[in-house]
């Protein structure tokens, strides 16, 4: 075989390439050139990570501190100001809901609690037969409904700073602030008909919803996202998918001579690949760019492109054969193994969110994005907490300090067994905090309960 032979669009392999052209993208000017591919071995480059590694933190923070890395005080302040403003603008009597950041934190906490104890509707948490004390004791039902109806993120009357093409303008400030904290497709379930960005994606668990393109690590941590607002009708060099990828890697370091491939750029391998059966593989290399394109046939053809691995070393995997009605051994290229190892971050993220997400119905479609970002903040905070625990080799034990000092729902109750007081650490008592499960003296002579929670 002539290793120096190059294949072009006229060859039997039918490579589809693009003419030389300049592309002005969001990150600057890129050179798009015709790619010539060779059928030869791919030389694996040095891929040892040489960037800064994650350093262990000084200590493990509280859950609230991790959560506020993503849902920040500035975001809650924006929500408070715009909610109060909207309540005045939307009220015939100019009544201000007069909410506070603390009350909005309680509202978010109630929503998270509802995800742990899910009921068919909001009212059920306050009904006598189905009452949930941790929800009903912290906010009245009427106040809860009033706040839900007033949640807002931008000034409706501010036409000067509104982007006419932005369909998410009602929640854009919140999304941008959350995205800055985070720095495959995710579906936010939504069946309403009043959203300008509602999409249908066949094959998804929730086919109708709001589509979010997300960039995740293999652990499921969200690093960047773009809310899909539908096609613009404008034809671009990369297409919708390529434009989204470019948007999600804006903050990644890219060479100014980066070569882009649109969908038609993937090569059409010989049709005999399918005739050779499962496990057959073909690959083409561009040595100048250290790039390889691999096509592997399993149940159907799979095409992958990489700059650091190719077909070797191959391994074998078990696959079910419909014709033979038995498991068979199928050869798998190394690039497919690597892809399977590091893919699925978005699916893992979706799975974490789905476990405890409470589906609160609303006619205002953008509130679904608000609750989704709240859950994304919870999952990201939990993943970073796990990472810090692993780096430090320990976990947090006991009630966090910010729970002890929140002055919310610390009710003294009696128990049968006596235990040592957590405050004075001398006397035994049968009184404990219903919320923290901490035993504290609560007698005429000693009130450790008060000093422990309210005099710190």
TrEMBL record:
Domain (PiggyBac transposable element-derived protein) spans 62-237, 273-382
- Segments spanning the bilayer are 365-385
Keyword set for this entry?
Membrane, Transmembrane, Transmembrane helix
- InterPro entries from the UniProt entry: PGBD
One Pfam family linked to the record: DDE_Tnp_1_7
Q: What is this protein called?
A: PiggyBac transposable element-derived protein domain-containing protein
Upper lineage ranks? Eukaryota, Metazoa, Chordata, Craniata, Vertebrata
